[in-house]
Amino acid sequence: MTLVIAHLLVTAALLLLVSNLVRHFDVRDATSAVLAAIVLGLANTFVRPLAIALTLPLTVVTLGLFLVVVNGFVLKIVAAIVPGFDIEGFLPAVWGALLLSIFNLLVELAFAPGW
């Protein structure tokens, strides 16, 4: 349970960081960031696998690069649900998804046991 809460808080902090780096990717405050992290976790659990299955041929043709677009789509869905989390346009969602993925990877590499 502690690991889940830690991951949630790290994701919220990364959302705040990405909002400072990407124009039109806005997180109003820490409360909105935590709520967005919760909804993003749920969307990644339920919506993202369906989106990946539906776009599998395109993902294969692009050698997996289309997954960044799928992640941007999931972020747009989360922004539509969570008050205080706004993404104006699809391109900021894709850039935000890309940065969020990179930052999550860096955090995982920094804190993963055995590295």
Describe this structure in words.
- This protein is mainly alpha-helical and 115 residues long.
- It has one domain (2-96).
- The protein has five helices and two strands, in the order αβαααβα.
- The protein has helices at residues 2-21, 30-54, 56-61, 66-81, 90-111, and strands spanning 25-27, 85-87.
- The protein has a two-stranded antiparallel sheet with strand order 1-2.
- Helix 1 crosses helix 2, helix 1 (2-21) crosses helix 5 (90-111) and helix 4 (66-81) packs across helix 5.
- It is globular, with a radius of gyration of 14 Å.
- The model has no long low-confidence stretch (mean pLDDT 94).
Secondary-structure map with pairings?
Blueprint (H helix, E strand, L loop, with lengths): L1 H20 L3 E3 L2 H25 L1 H6 L4 H16 L3 E3 L2 H22 L4
Antiparallel strand pairs: 1-2
List the secondary-structure elements in sequence, H or E.
HEHHHEH
| SS class | mainly alpha
Helix content: over 70%
Distance between the termini: 23 Å
Mean pLDDT: 94
Radius of gyration: 14 Å
The beta-strand count equals 2
Q: Specify the overall morphology.
A: globular
Number of helices: 5
Number of domains: 1
- Proportion in β-strands: 5-15%
Biggest sheet, spatial arrangement of strands: 1-2
Poorly predicted regions: none
